[in-house]
Amino acid sequence: MALKTAIVTLDGDGLRFTASAGSGHSIVLDSREGDTGMRPAELLPVAIAGCTGMDVISILRKKRQDVSGYRIEVGGTQMDAHPNAFTRMDVTHVVEGRGVDPDAVSRAIELSATRYCAVGATLASGIVEIHHGYRVIDTVTGTEEAGDVLVEGPNRDPATALTATAG
């Protein structure tokens, strides 16, 4: 099994964070107030678009389709109440080129969605367990304390999250 890692570090007094992935690349995350980077929830539509896009363009190139332009448009609908979980993602592939076969595009999208795109498979599956824990390091004594808090999922209903933890 592959392990993907990220370290997200607070940057200043606001809600700005710098995220670094195990690949060595970084991005900035921020709130609406700070507005110096993407909001965390925006990364889900970005992630599915990037994942499926890489699959689809690779497949279309193997099928020798003459693609001159390609973009993926994603609209994600979030619940109005906290935790504002996504309830739907609409992914539209816009392919431009000379003589591009719509059947080839459709098949490439189908293969991405059903076989190759890890992000889409994860979002659609409901199988993910999220383990929450902590480590507190005392900067004076150097002592460290760690603990587990809770495990969420799989298939947890986000609408019941607040009532389940409020008691």
Overview of this protein structure:
The chain has 167 residues and is of the alpha+beta class. The protein folds into 3 domains: 1-38, Single Sheet (N-terminal domain of TfIIb); 39-125, K homology (KH) domain (GMP Synthetase, Chain A, domain 3, 2-Layer Sandwich); 130-166, no CATH class. Helix content is 29%, strand content 33%. It has a 3-stranded antiparallel β-sheet with strand order 1-2-3, with no helix packed on it. A two-stranded antiparallel ribbon has the order 4-5. Strands 6-7 form a two-stranded antiparallel ribbon.
Summarize the model shown.
With 167 residues, this protein is an alpha+beta fold.
